[in-house]
Amino acid sequence: ETGVTQSPTHLIKTRGQQVTLRCSSQSGHNTVSWYQQALGQGPQFIFQYYREEENGRGNFPPRFSGLQFPNYSSELNVNALELDDSALYLCASSWPGQGAYNEQFFGPGTRLTVL
Amino acid sequence: AQTVTQSQPEMSVQEAETVTLSCTYDTSESNYYLFWYKQPPSRQMILVIRQEAYKQQNATENRFSVNFQKAAKSFSLKISDSQLGDTAMYFCAFIQGAQKLVFGQGTRLTINP
Q1: Which of B31, B32, B43 to mutate to test the interface with A (most CBs of A within 10 A)?
Q2: pLDDT 10s digits, A45-56
Q3: Nearest residue of B to residue A41 by CA position?
Q4: CA A84 to each of CA A18, A41, A57, A111, B39: distance values in angstroms, whole numbers, following the listed order
Q5: Distance of residue B16 Cα from the nearest chain A Cα, in angstroms
């Protein structure tokens, strides 16, 4: 069983540029959640995708957008990068089952630095 | 709003000692789940232990156990016989429903030889 993978591992961009981060979900998982983790902080929920549709969004501006593909992999796009966007971006996949809990399995993250 | 608070930014203990990490949370829901995650320098977020709010019995996973006090909205993690490999950031987290995990600010735990 393949775990959650993310690419690239590290990325350096300049202010105003656009960036795309990628995530491959764990085999059999159709739900992907994205989190932003600033240095020394806990992760903050950006949004979740379920079967290619956005299924919940955190307190992030519209310049943070996403996609989920038929194979359930996902992209996070950030436009007009700002210095405060520098962070570790974590992707987590899950399989919605019965009940109120769906364990999320995390990837290793992409470290984005905005200069 | 759902919030999670970890009041200990850093902790340090000697190998083989027992350490307890604190966490409080705020929610108006009655059905939810609580977690402790470990994030070593490799950055991979690893689930350590989970607790279902409707279960009164405290969860245990080998050397890791929790003290869940629902009325006080407290969820502490106890690590027994600590090992060097336990050195990491530890995050308390909460989820209600299938969507977002809400994380605390984290506690940096160092196990000294």
Answers
A1: B43
A2: 999 998 899 988
A3: B105
A4: 14, 13, 19, 13, 22
A5: 27
